[in-house]
Amino acid sequence: MVQINTAPAVHPGFTEKNRIITGGEIQYMPYPDGPELHMLKRAVSIIEHNIYRKNVACSRYFKSLSKDNPLSFDDVWEDKDVWINLDPRPSANFDGFNANDHPKDITIAARSFRRNVWFVVSVIVHELAHVAGAPSEWKSDAAERSLLHCGLRAFYHPSEQRTAMSESPPPAADSETVTA
């Protein structure tokens, strides 16, 4: 199964340079014990109870993302080398990212946890689509389209540019909000 990078980390955190992102870097760090980790565990539970081994359309779409090495959603979810990390910076101007140098590492930005648990689910699915082979170029929305096939249509944005959205996230229900 995918693994959550938690402290004390067995999986080391790292920073990757990125020209597209404001600030020029993306962090892939362990989750400290706290509200983000709690919400992430709830998101993982939602995926395990609603998508993993249950959503045939989602797995079929994931297999279409790479001609060389077709992987279903279930294949990616079962890969113990896939890590979910945290970019803890509140100023990060993206929701999630897939590492270039470590292609089985994804990171969820702290701002994503200001929304709600279902938004976090959508970010995870989107980033796992990159792990499965969706191109990371800005002109491709293959990873974003995974949301249409994985039961997350409400979170689909026609352009993958959602990682660069500047508006504030919509308010979350009190039970779904992370507070510091």
Provide the gyration radius in Å.
15 Å
Strands of the biggest beta sheet: in what spatial order?
A: 1-4-6-5
Helix-strand sequence: EEEHHHEEEHH
Structural class estimated from helices and strands: alpha/beta
Number of helices: 5
Mean pLDDT: 88
Please outline the major beta sheet.
Answer: 4 strands, mixed
Instruction: Classify the oligomer.
Output: single chain
Shape summary: globular
Number of domains: 1
Outline of the structure:
With 180 residues, the protein is of the alpha/beta class. The chain is built from five helices and six strands. A four-stranded mixed sheet has the order 1-4-6-5, with helices on one face.
List keywords for this structure.
180 residues, 4-stranded mixed beta sheet, alpha/beta, single chain, disordered C terminus, 6 strands
How would you explain this protein's 3D organization?
By secondary structure, the chain is of the alpha/beta class. It has one domain. Helix content is 29%, strand content 13%. It has helices at 35-50, 56-63, 73-77, 117-131, 142-149, and strands spanning 3-4, 14-17, 25-28, 83-87, 96-98, 105-109. Strands 1-4-6-5 form a 4-stranded mixed beta sheet, with helices on one face. Strand 2 (14-17) and strand 3 form a beta hairpin. The two termini are 29 Å apart. The model is unreliable at 160-180 (pLDDT under 50).
